[in-house]
Amino acid sequence: MTQLSEFHRERVQSVLQASPLVPVIAINRLEDAVPLCQALVDGGIPVLEITLRTEFGVDAIKAVRAAIPEAWVGAGTVSSIAQYRQVEAAGAQFVITPGVTEAILEFGLTSEAPLLPGIATVSELMTGYALGYREFKFFPAEVAGGVPALKAFSGPFGDVTFCPTGGIRRDTASKYLALKNVQAVGGSWLTPDDVVAARDWARITEIARGSLADL
């Protein structure tokens, strides 16, 4: 059975070690992508998960990669191999899925952009584990059991680390990051819809800095 390479694992680890917070970014206006992401980087967050929740996701990845080369720019909400190929072609440096299929897990073994697969159960974790994956997104974190679930996972899977996302807030992020098996936390609180709609990039930078200071 083909196993995940050390190269892929090291790339994912580099992303998760680069920032304890991973903003979950939905771009509703393509022209907002670069200033929004620059505001996050200015606030001390160099890891950017640009989701495919809107039609502008792929083009936003391409634009941000070109404009902010010092950042880690990845794709989120990738749910098919066709989308995986699209974001790779756009320059995504990592790929995050909301869940897993065997096809996506196998594609990620040899992909250009390393995969952080999303799981919510031990059975899904074991499917990825068998292929060599040791880093996972835990989603939707709060609904799927939150901190107690991750503590329970650490028993049988002490060599697995997580980036929980889903329902986590600025005031609860530190509880997750206190766990030994959590490397980073993802959240949309870093890019509030009303602040982005107002194009208040200074406020985005302030939220990023404040959120890091709270940890």
From TrEMBL:
Q: State if Metal-binding is listed as a keyword.
A: no
One Gene Ontology term of the molecular function aspect? 2-dehydro-3-deoxy-phosphogluconate aldolase activity
Quote the PROSITE patterns the UniProt record gives.
Answer: ALDOLASE_KDPG_KHG_1, ALDOLASE_KDPG_KHG_2
The cross-references to InterPro entries, in alphabetical order and at most eight, read: Aldlse_KDPG_KHG, Aldolase_TIM, KDPG/KHG_AS_1, KDPG/KHG_AS_2
- The answer, when asked if ATP-binding is one of the entry's keywords, is no
Q: Which UniProt keywords apply?
A: Carbohydrate metabolism, Lyase, Schiff base
- The enzyme's E.C. designation: 4.1.2.14
**Gene3D superfamilies documented for this protein:** Aldolase class I
The record's similarity note reads: Belongs to the KHG/KDPG aldolase family.
- Quaternary state and interactors: Homotrimer.
- In Swiss-Prot or TrEMBL terms, this protein is called 2-dehydro-3-deoxy-phosphogluconate aldolase
The species this protein was found in: Marinobacter albus
